[in-house]
Design goal:
By secondary structure, this protein is mainly α. The chain is built from 5 helices and no strands.
């Protein structure tokens, strides 16, 4: 039972991580660039007075928009989790032993 829920969460997390990487790549950003800019922005904003101004580049603005969009994407497919909970509650959930065995063998093969 928990294997299905865990795999849904892992699949969505992997998909979201991959999407984030593609969005950053399309914006011409790398993780190192982002970390460098965050550190620079932190250093700038921590020592500024009220009259200082920070101007973001177009790519930085786009990156902020992309980060906000990604933050809104759920990590877990709640609809699928709810449907599994309902199936468990009403007794209609069926475990496919062959599918589980095949997935275990696939994982075993990956470890080799």
């Amino acid at each position: 039972m928990s294997n299905s829920i865990d795999s849904v969460s892992s699949n969505n997390l992997a998909a979201n991580t991959e999407t984030a990487a593609k969005l950053r790549e399309s914006a011409g950003q790398t993780d190192k660039d982002i970390d460098t800019r965050r550190q620079a922005n932190s250093a700038i904003t921590s020592g500024t007075s009220g009259s200082d101004e920070l101007v973001l580049t177009d790519s930085a603005k786009r990156l902020q928009q992309l980060e906000q969009t990604l933050a809104q994407i759920p990590v877990v497919d709640t609809a699928k989790v709810d449907s599994i909970k309902q199936a468990l509650a009403d007794g209609s959930y069926r475990v496919d032993a062959d599918k589980i065995a095949n997935k275990l063998l696939d994982m075993e093969n990956l470890l080799k």
